[in-house]
């Protein structure tokens, strides 16, 4: 796991503990547009720490091996979710729905039901697509799954990035569109507020 932490975050007073946000990308493709968008997020709020939570090593969900801590990659995945304050999922849309690799990961994070890693965890959703609908259908399905797990998805705020090919430099793997950056920063700020609000629900 990789933790990205700013110098400014280290200067915060002890009573203002730095929040850590997990970043999950719902694509395994190395040059995924959504990975580029996710990589821009740590640049938007230097008061936060970020941890990448990868999905590539997770086996297909199988209840026969889902006992105890589960297989080693699953144990690491669940522990990564448990140690962050909230998770932002940045995912494409495949065939008008949720990518299989992400659904598989959410299934692993949903058990055991009473102590599931995502149960009660604040979650934000971001999606980017070369098309014009901005992963609307995918996010609806992701939200439905998260609500079944009883994760606390940021309400009332949505972040869709349409025509993403025009908004990034694919070779440099950077987000270049200032308007998208502005809205993404606003979304991250709302998500951080949601982490505190979600805690108050406990």
TrEMBL record:
Domain NADPH-dependent FMN reductase-like: 21-162
InterPro entries: Flavoprotein-like_sf, FMN_Rdtase-like_dom, NAD(P)H-dep_reductase
Superkingdom classification of source: Bacteria
TM region positions: none
Family: Belongs to the azoreductase type 2 family.
The name this protein goes by in its record: NAD(P)H-dependent oxidoreductase
């Amino acid at each position: 796991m990789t933790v990205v932490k700013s110098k400014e975050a280290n200067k915060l007073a002890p009573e203002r503990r730095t929040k850590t946000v997990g970043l999950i990308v719902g694509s395994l493709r190395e040059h995924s547009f959504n990975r580029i968008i996710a990589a821009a997020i740590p640049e938007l709020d230097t008061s936060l720490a970020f941890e990448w939570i990868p999905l590539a090593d997770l086996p297909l969900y199988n209840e026969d091996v889902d006992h105890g801590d589960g297989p080693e990659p699953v144990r690491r995945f669940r522990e990564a979710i448990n140690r962050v304050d909230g998770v932002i999922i940045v995912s494409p849309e495949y065939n008008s729905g949720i990518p299989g690799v992400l659904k598989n990961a959410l299934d692993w994070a949903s058990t055991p039901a009473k102590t599931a890693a995502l149960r009660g965890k604040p979650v934000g959703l971001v999606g980017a697509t070369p098309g014009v609908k901005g992963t609307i259908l995918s996010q609806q399905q992701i939200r439905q799954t998260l609500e079944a797990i009883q994760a606390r998805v940021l309400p009332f705020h949505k972040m869709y990035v349409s025509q993403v090919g025009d908004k990034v430099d694919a070779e440099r793997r950077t987000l270049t569109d200032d308007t998208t950056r502005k809205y993404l920063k606003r979304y991250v700020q709302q998500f951080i507020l949601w982490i505190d609000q979600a805690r108050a629900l406990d």
